[in-house]
């Protein structure tokens, strides 16, 4: 992840050097429109799916009891479920919305898409116990799947997965800030100007 971030910063640096070189060679050849096009190109470059992956494991014991024949006895069924789940938290930056004001040399980010959390659990069942009066069926498996997803959602909230994904998001958006600052443009979000300090504070 660090390597990719460094490569991204280097790429932005190359763009900036090219921009400055062109400006040195022909001051009249660099226009606000060309600057605007360069910024839009940079936004397209970061407009990809930024994904952070994580792995979670847990063991769940599922039990269900109901009355058996003529309510004479309790019929119980149970199983131990081993869960291994791959989880991804991503931002589809191709959905980012922005406005460019060429007159005032300002780019305003209007909307950043909410993170998308995908949970792909692999469930394995062990020690299944049941009888003819209370057997496993589709409803049981649906309940287990729901229980697994709710448990994993809580673990994700307590983990660093979402914050890591947000750090990657800020790293990508920081490339836009570097370019706009170099060209004398202003970057805004939520009605406020974005600078390095606000970016580090997680304004996005």
What does this entry look like structurally?
The protein is built from five helices and seven strands. The protein has 204 residues and is of the alpha+beta class. α1 (2-25) packs parallel to α4 and α2 packs antiparallel against α4. The two termini are 19 Å apart.
The DSSP helix count reads 5
Number of distinct beta strands: 7
> In percent, how much strand structure appears in the residues?
25-35%
Sequence stretches where pLDDT stays below 50 over 5 or more residues: 12-29
Largest sheet: 4 strands, mixed
Mean pLDDT value: 80
H-E order? HHEEEEEHHEEH
From the N-terminal CA to the C-terminal CA, the straight-line distance is 19 Å
Class inferred from helices and paired strands? alpha+beta
- Biggest sheet, strands in spatial order? 3-4-6-7
Percent range of helical residues? 40-55%
Overall 3D form = rod-shaped
Radius of gyration from the alpha-carbon trace, in angstroms: 26 Å
């Amino acid at each position: 992840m660090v390597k990719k971030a460094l490569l991204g910063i280097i790429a932005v640096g190359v763009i900036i050097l090219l921009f400055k070189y062109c400006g040195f060679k022909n001051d009249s050849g660099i226009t606000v429109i060309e600057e605007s096009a360069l910024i839009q190109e940079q936004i397209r470059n970061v407009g990809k799916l930024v994904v952070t992956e994580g792995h979670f494991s847990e063991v769940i014991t599922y039990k269900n009891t109901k009355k058996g024949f003529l309510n004479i006895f309790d019929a119980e069924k149970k199983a131990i479920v081993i869960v291994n789940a791959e989880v991804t938290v991503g931002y589809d930056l191709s959905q980012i919305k922005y406005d460019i004001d060429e007159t005032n040399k300002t780019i305003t980010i209007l909307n950043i898409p909410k993170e998308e959390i995908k949970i792909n659990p692999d469930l394995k069942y062990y020690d299944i116990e049941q009888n003819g009066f209370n057997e496993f069926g589709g409803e049981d498996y649906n309940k287990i799947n729901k229980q697994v997803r709710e448990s994993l959602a809580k673990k994700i909230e307590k983990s660093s997965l979402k914050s890591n994904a947000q750090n990657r998001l800020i790293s990508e958006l920081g490339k836009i800030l570097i370019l706009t600052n170099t060209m004398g443009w202003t970057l805004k979000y939520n009605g406020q100007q974005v600078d390095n300090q606000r970016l580090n504070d997680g304004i996005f």
